[in-house]
Amino acid sequence: MINEFPLQWHITVKCDQNCKHCYMRDEEFYENQLKNPLSYEDIIKIIDMYLEFTDEWSFRKRIIFTGGDPLLRSDFFDILKYTKEKDIPVDILGNPFHLNESIVEKLEKLGVVSYQLSIDGMRETHDSLRSKGSFDDTMRAIKLLKRSGIKVKIMFTISKKNEKDLLDVIDLVARLNVDLFAFTRLIPIGSGESLKKYVFTDLEYRSLLLKVIEKYRELKEKGFRTYFGRKSCDPWILLERDLGLLLPEDLEDEEKNLFLKRCPIGKHLCILADGIVLSCRKLPIPIGKLPEQNFEEIINSKKMKYIMEDRGINRKKNCKRYVRGCAAMSYALTGDIRNPDPNCWC
User: Fold this and answer.
1) Using alpha carbons only, what angle is made at residue 268 by residues 60 and 40, rounded to the nearest 5 degrees?
2) Buried b / exposed e across 290-303, counting CB within 10 Å, b at 16+?
């Protein structure tokens, strides 16, 4: 059963960075988001629709506001006041540049639970992928957030372009005592399409994961408290099972079984700045539009059913395992969401 139904809401496409791997820019619907963002009134209407939907189905609520940078939307704090009034937990995925002591204090008072920043390498690598000075400003923002009650999360977008820095970044975030660190694979869409040659092969990715698993184990043994997350749609769940690292309770049944878990498609929705709805932000197939449609209409739409139907059942030739993997990666590299995850090995 689904206990929580979160929204990932790209509330604006305004952004101070121009990341080389950005999935937001250079897409067919980017210009429309820029020119026709949802009004404040429509945003409040969508929040009310979300409340009605989650109450009817007894889902826990959570909204993840992102962008672009949500702090660049002029009425963002008014929106947060409304989610606070409605007792909706809020997470933010954003940039460091506009965070200062007063802004952080305001975010905390308005119910923001966590703030996710990106680190895509050590200083030189990170700045080359994002913007000059971004790394140092991220370090400043982490320290600022750590003095508040807002949890600090760090995400790393991994490819062959920055893999050499991954273990050093893992050491860094552990020393900084951030609350959570995770990495996600580069999905070559949007601006990132030009980086397709930097996507890992299946065995290259497996080799990297072995190093990461050993690093996580080393830091845990040393007593570092950062939680090292993993994506349920990532092939490394397969590797952890092969190595016998999953706990018995992880394998009790399909609902708990991390190896068999589907990717989050169908367990959340992604809303773009103009109200277009996607099943996953990195899978550029629109499935509906808010507030013109309601949540049930979108979830039960033909496009959503097509994306959900038999997701990931196809396997590589001679593969004896049932691997779901990432639909967005399959779509970006093969054009078909039903193809196996290109980073899955057999």
Assistant:
1) 85
2) bbebebeebbebee
Q: How far is residue 280 from each of residues 80, 179, 273, 294, measured CA to CA in Å?
A: 23, 25, 14, 18
Task: Measure the CA–CA gap between 65 and 191, rounded to whole angstroms.
Answer: 21
User: How far apart are the C-alpha atoms of 127 and 314, rounded to whole Å?
Assistant: 39
For residue 165, the Cα-to-chain-centroid distance in whole angstroms is 20
Quickly tell me which residue has 């507030």 as its tokens.
291
What torsion, rounded to 10 degrees, do the Cα atoms 192, 198, 199, 205 define? -140
Task: Tell me what pLDDT residue 233 has.
Answer: 64
User: C-alpha angle with apex 296: 294 to 299, nearest 5 degrees?
Assistant: 110
Do 7 and 48 meet the contact criterion of CB atoms below 8 Å apart?
A: no
pLDDT, residue 322, reads 45
| pLDDT tens, position by position, 264-274 | 788 899 999 99
Confidence of residue 163 (pLDDT cuts 50, 70, 90): very high
- Predicted local confidence at residue 313, as pLDDT: 47
Q: Could you tell me the pTM of the whole model?
A: 0.91
Q: How far apart are CA 326 and CA 312, in angstroms?
A: 8
